[in-house]
Structure to design on (255 residues):
């Protein structure tokens, strides 16, 4: 039995899948119902964008400055949802300064930053010792950081296309590992993607044969749309506005 849903919205609860279930009773087709979006955000402080992300094998995971949904994809697809940000003393001090004095940060952003520091961080004098504390192969972690620092020293472009302003050597101990794993100290926000198949020109729901079902329309998260495969903040709102107007105009013209 599902738990009761509570919503702050005066017109009712958020999209909960009932529209998709309704369409299925009328032989509607669906697309990409296997897709989810999940997010792991750790900045601000922006100093942490200069860290190196590593997975269970001690190897680098991704461009650390990527959008949180893309970071979470890499965590799950490359490392079973486990990952850490590796940084040195200089970066940690920079992060602390930002959290203490950056007036542009909202209170919730500062709170999250301090929670990462106090609840999710391990510290060690060397990379080898740090690897032991978080259960990673020491040789692999040391090689990952050595390679990263070497490319910076040689002024080579980042292998994962991280902007140059976020590429700084990580070499001054003590070293820190911030746990950014899915299911770590912080829950991982997620929502489902995909939905009912619709005609692109009018939003009518399509049946299993690709034919429109008369007088049935789908919009927003009930329908396949702009963010059916992956997600960026704000796309649900943008998609609802566009697909809702599209369906409404066609339905009104048919009256």
């Amino acid at each position: 039995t599902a738990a009761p849903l509570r919503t702050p919205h005066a017109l009712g609860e958020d999209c909960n899948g009932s529209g998709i279930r309704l369409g299925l009773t009328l032989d509607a087709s669906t697309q990409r119902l296997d897709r989810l979006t999940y997010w792991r955000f750790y900045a601000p402080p922006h100093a942490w964008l200069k860290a190196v992300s590593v997975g269970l094998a001690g190897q680098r995971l991704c461009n650390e400055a990527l959008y949180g949904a893309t970071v979470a994809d890499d965590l799950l697809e490359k490392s079973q949802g486990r990952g850490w940000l590796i940084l040195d003393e200089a970066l940690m001090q920079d992060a602390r300064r930002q959290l203490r004095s950056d007036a542009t940060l909202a209170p919730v952003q500062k709170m999250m930053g301090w929670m990462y520091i106090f609840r999710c961080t391990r510290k060690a004098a060397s990379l080898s010792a740090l690897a032991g504390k978080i259960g990673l192969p020491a040789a692999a972690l040391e090689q990952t950081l050595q390679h990263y620092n070497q490319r910076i020293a040689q002024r080579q472009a980042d292998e994962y296309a991280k902007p140059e302003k976020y590429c700084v050597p990580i070499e001054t101990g003590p070293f820190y590992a911030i746990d950014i794993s899915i299911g770590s100290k912080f829950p991982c926000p997620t929502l489902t993607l995909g939905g009912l198949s619709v005609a692109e020109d009018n939003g009518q729901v399509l049946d299993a044969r690709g034919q429109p079902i008369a007088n049935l329309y789908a919009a927003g998260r009930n329908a396949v749309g702009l963010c059916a495969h992956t997600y960026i903040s704000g796309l649900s709102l943008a998609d609802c506005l566009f697909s809702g107007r599209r369906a409404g105009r066609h339905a009104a013209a048919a009256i």
User: Anything to note?
Assistant: Residues 18-35+193-254 form one domain.
